[in-house]
Structures are given as C-alpha cells and as structure tokens.
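Q: Start with the shorter request: fold the first protein.
A: Done. Sequence, then structure:
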Amino acid sequence: MVVPTLIDGEIKLFQSLAILEYLDEAYPEPPLLPPDLLARAWVRGFALINVADSHPLIVPRVRHDLTDVLKVSDDQRLAWIQHWLGAGLQAMETLLAEHSASGRFCHGETPTVADICLVTQVTPAKTFDCALDHYPRVIRVYETCMAIPAFADAHPAKQPDAE
C-alpha cells in the first residue's frame, strides 16, 4: 500500500498532494490553496519541492535500499539524507526570499499546502540533525505553523504509531 493513504468510504486515496487537494475541495474552509490561479500554481510548485524532489529520496524504502542493497555505512546514509533535505530547504529558502506574497506563511497570512509541505520538510530535517541555521525564513514559517494546534498535533511524534 502506498503511504499515506486516506480511505473515504470505498475509495482509497493515496499520495500526499492528491490527498491535500481532495481535502481542500471536500472541506473548503479554511482553504488550503489561494483563490488566484498564479498563486495556486506557486503554492503547488513550492509544495512539490518536498513532495516530488527531496522527500522521495529519504523515505524508509530508499533508506533500506541504501543500507541493504548498496551497503552504504550509517554515516553515508545520514549524509545522503542530510544532502537531499538540505537541497529542498535551500530551494524553499530561496523561493521565500523572492516571493513578494510571503507573509507569516509561505504565501500570505494563512496556511496553505505550501506550509504543510514546508513542515514536512523541516520535521525530518530536525530528526536527522540537519543544520538549519542557513534557512531563517523556512524556520520562521515552520515555527509559525507549529504554533497552530492542528500542525502541532499532527507531528509524527504525537501519532499513535510513533516509535
């Protein structure tokens, strides 16, 4: 089964971005995407930095292949993880610096899909001891998000299956 998976009745939904867009359409308040078409595209593009570029390279399946198939050392595996998380964080930091509509959040004054994906970039970066001091905008948005109970309650460490 692909993780994450959301089951709504008989239909299984999979992949983070598809689930987030479904939730935005099924429960439009508060919106997870801005109303303006260009802003929506920017938010989706920002989210894809995590969803398509960096996170797929650090998932457990890849980490296990690095160890079990390629026989990399723990230090090499950690360097791989930190490299790809850092590349994503750097891209996010650069985009936030350039984006005139960034406010308290990635785009404006309310959380969007971009913020959800930023949080899910920073969370493993913290778990895998990535240096975060080069990403002040990213960390500011992360901390703003984590002050919201819905974000804080969704943290992986607070989930029933947390190890």
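Q: Next, the second protein, separately.
A: Sequence, then structure:
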Amino acid sequence: MLSRTGEDRALWLYLSAYALLVIIIVWQFVAAGDFSLGRRPWENLQKTAAEFSQPSFLNLWFGNPRLEYRADDGRVLRVEDQRGREAQFLASLGRAIWTTFQIATLGSLLAALLAAPFGLVAAKNMAVSPWVARPARLLLSVFRSIHTLVFGLIFVGVIGLGPMAGVMAIAAHSFGSYGKLYAEAIEAADARLIQSGTALGLSPLQTLVHGLSRTMLPRWISVHLYIWEFNVRDSTVLGLIGAGGLGLLISEAVSLFQWGRLATILLAIVALVAAFDAVSRRIRHAINRPRET
C-alpha cells in the first residue's frame, strides 16, 4: 500500500509525464506545419454552420414542389419536387437506421455470448491456471486493441459487402471489451461469496455459477447494455466501408457537400442513441435496485 505522500508523488509524476507528452505532440505539430486550421477557417465555419442550421427534413413541409434548375441562358434544365424527394430520402434513412440497429444488436449479442467463458477464465479471483488465464487475457486484449473499422475492412474482404460484415466487425471488437468488463465484474464480486463457497468445498468458479442469478447476472446485463449502446453509435460509420447502415448515407452527404442532409442524418443518430440510452438506463436501474430479502 502506498502512503499518502507516495500517492501524491505518483499523481504528480503521472501529470508531469502527461504534460510532457502533450508538449512534445504540440511541438511536432508546429514543426511539421500541421498546427493550422486551414485557409479562411472562420468563413468556412460560418458557411457550413448556416447550411447545418437548415436540416433537409424541413423540405418535407417547406420544400418547393416545383424547384426549377436553369442554365445560364435561362433554359429550364429540370424541375424537382423537393417534398417528394425528401420523403424518399427519409424512407431510405429509416431503412438505414434499422439496418444499423440490427448490426449493433446481433454483433453485441454474438460478442457477449462468446466472451462469457473468457471473462470467467480471465478473472483473477477465479484461481484458474495461469497457462489458461494468461492466453485468455492476451486474446481479449488483442481483439479489444483492433478498431471496429479495421475489423470491418477485414470482414468486407472475407464475406463481402453488406450488413453481415458489420455484424462480424462489431462482434470481433466487442468480444475483447465484453471479456474484460466481465472479468472486472467478477473480480469486484463480494469476497465473502467466494469464501463461503470455499468453506462448503466449492471452487470459486462453482460458487460463482451457483450464485449467478443474484450476483453476476445483473452486472453482466448492465455490461451488455453499456456495450450495446456504444455499438449502436459505432455501427453508424461502418457503412463508410461497405458494411451497411447509416455510413453510406453519411459518405454520400459529405462527398456531395449536402450539409442539410448530413444535419438530418446526425439528428437521427442523436435521437436513436438518446432513445436507446434512456431505455437502457431504466433497465440498468431496475436490475441493480436492491432486492428485498
């Protein structure tokens, strides 16, 4: 155990090291000429903000049903129904949102099921042989270290374009996160539970299994909801690499500088995540509420 003075020294050491790291990074950015906001950043910001302030979904009510595009000589090139076109876009947005939610849900469930035994083995208080526990921890660390987009590129190459590649990418990255959080939840379990099982001749793992419904299951459900919520956000960009979902619409809007449509997409993502967060928070509160004995 560190003394109070030792803890203060360690804290200042960490803060000093962090400050030094930031100074080195800023210095290298300045030396490379990258510490710049580009040309006319304020004008570009104002223009982009003005377009963002007019989300395209407003065209559903206020759009021009006969918007004319004219050539320089005044000829009418084409006539567009903004309201009808926006209705089509919102329909495609709804389908993309549902696909994104499907990817996050199936990927999270697959990862949660695969990671459960690894979390048990990796927990230090389960007294599993180091020859088994250490490889399990290493495997979880490896999968957790690789970003979802990298896994997405791999699975798009293996499986092909489509939402299944997104499901596998979410599952692969989340596998490591689930395993780590499962192990930490087990390590945070009441030590008296393990001791009482040992007194009855049970191993730590047997004790945990017998007491699963009262001790670990609520915590694991909380972990699942937390990572599921994160994956809902993470899966929105998988379409950028062809793995389905909202990413394709985001890529199209950005490449065509359609900031109004991008604003609509981002508002939809915020609404989706906020709704999921509200529901998951209520579920976590309900399952973690102290039970009457």
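Q: Describe the second briefly.
A: The chain has two domains: 4-36, 83-287. The chain has a mean pLDDT of 80.
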